[in-house]
Amino acid sequence: MANGHLYVTRDLGPEPMQILRESGHEVVVHPDRDLPPTREELLEHVNGAVGIITLLTEAMDAELFDRAGPQLKVVAAVSVGTDNIDVHAAESRGITVTNTPDVLTDATADLAIGLLLALNRRIVEADAFLRRSEPWSWGPRLFLGRDLAGETLGIVGYGRIGEALATRARAFGMRVIAAASGSGSRGGVERMPLDELLATADVISLHAPLNGETRHLIGARQIASMKPGAVIINTARGPLIDEDALVDALRNRRIRGAGLDVFEHEPAIHPGLLELDNVVLTPHIGSAGEQTRTRMALLAIKNALAVLDHSGPLTPVSTLGSTGSRRDAVTVPSAGVGKQGES
Fold this sequence. Notes:
The chain is α/β, with parallel strands linked by helices. It has helices at 14-21, 39-46, 62-68, 87-92, 105-120, 123-131, 160-171, 194-200, 220-224, 243-251, 271-274, 290-308, and strands spanning 5-8, 26-29, 49-54, 74-77, 96-98, 152-156, 175-179, 184-186, 189-192, 203-206, 231-234, 257-260, 279-281, 316-317. It has twelve helices and 14 strands.
């Protein structure tokens, strides 16, 4: 057994924490389950750690790895994305980085559908209306929304979550298309270039990873090419959308609405979004199903213990983005990507 402790940046729940404490490794846990540790607390508690189990809210970088020391062997993320981890800096120090792919697929697809239903049927607006105790009747235009059946859903990032969303959407009677270079159909989903998808879809749902090419994938030019009545859903990463451009389009009703679980400068929310009634906002809860979060924590723990016990990680991450199982892969055509999306 390696000397040194295993640092957990947040309490992961009864079952995962019990497994950790029975593992034979010394475990140090940040005492506040709801709030992340401060930078100072992170630097203090990683000192001497052989492993770190972290959430997306904690930045794992070269300074932190050096503070931990050369005995640090693994950083296990309780997430699919590793935006918060400098994977290259970790690898250069011999530190294995792992994530939790596959586990949160259904929960995230469920939330995307939930956001879409809330927008199309104006559920949040109707709830707020009743809570204000305003007079109402069964008038034909009271919170008139849109049916899902017959609408076209455009998925940008057609990997595991995109596929799960497509299954749900078809059950509602929606046509499903996906962004890809070229054209054609696979598995009943029509593929087309991004620009064509944006002009075709009634609903655009983002499931692409965040990288240099996909930052501001949806900017002013892309929004201008959308159908006037379109809505956009983002349960992937906030910086995929230029929020200034989005707020402007929503204010001017250039598009009908947006359902956002992630934000460009998270945890800060663009003040313009908070002022709009055609937006549904949730605080990054895509994986927040009770069973899903437990499964994520258990996989992260298994990864950390496997590295420390020299049996090899289950789902490793590398600077090339490979993992022990298939990533939520995405083929996004170059048109409208990166700087072109920031106009």
